[in-house]
Amino acid sequence: MNASDLTIRPGKRTDDEGKKFAYYMNQASDGGFKKMFGKRFEEIVSKVYLEPNHDLSYETALFAEVAGRIVGMVSGYTAEQYQHFSKDALSRASGRSRFRISFILALIAPMMRFLHTYDEGDYYVEFLAVDGAFGGQGIGSSLLQAIEDRARASGATQLSIDVAARNTRAQRLYKRIGFTVIRRWPCTRWLRANILRMTKPL
Ligand SMILES: CC(C)(COP(=O)(O)OP(=O)(O)OC[C@H]1O[C@@H](n2cnc3c(N)ncnc32)[C@H](O)[C@@H]1OP(=O)(O)O)[C@@H](O)C(=O)NCCC(=O)NCCS
Asked: Residue 121 carries which DSSP code?
């Protein structure tokens, strides 16, 4: 792939792109979201993607394209935007799966609190994933650069991201471009950390 073949562009408000968003969101969580949401995962996420003003909205997404084909995605928002986001968009889009999803979210509430706690001036990168066949060619770095540009334009003072402690590939990339670990979850002495919060000053 030549660098000139790569385009990074904002998410479009279409059904197809909603499905892509769901796909990369699931990749970013190593398949965790599909397990959590069940069989209707793609349908629910692609529906909620079409709505503005929440963290799974088309407004948060940037897609990477090579020769017109989507090959990766990053999404993010400021701490300030998060405060004003609708918190029930997902529940409304879940329809008959609403109770299952609310129940699971209640079970993982302590982890969700960690993930959704932001520092002042944060621009939070929520999901990042690149197709395996296109890995190691700089697309992840380009997506991060594009979201960093968005973050600077929004007036944010740091980028932040959560990464699974076992995801050493992603951590290596984040460290290389200037992120450091600032918090861990769980943060007790007795349990090994599962999630690392990494930040990069802007
Ligand atoms: C993590 C992930 C997004 C990285 O995407 P990527 O496109 O492979 O990232 P890059 O190509 O920019 O960087 C990866 C490596 O390739 C190297 N690289 C960058 N440009 C390159 C190029 N043009 N040619 C060859 N190698 C290159 C980088 O130096 C980097 O090396 P490092 O691992 O030693 O830091 C991708 O592996 C992925 O989707 N993983 C699964 C989902 C995931 O873990 N998401 C993150 C959740 S927090």
From this structure: T
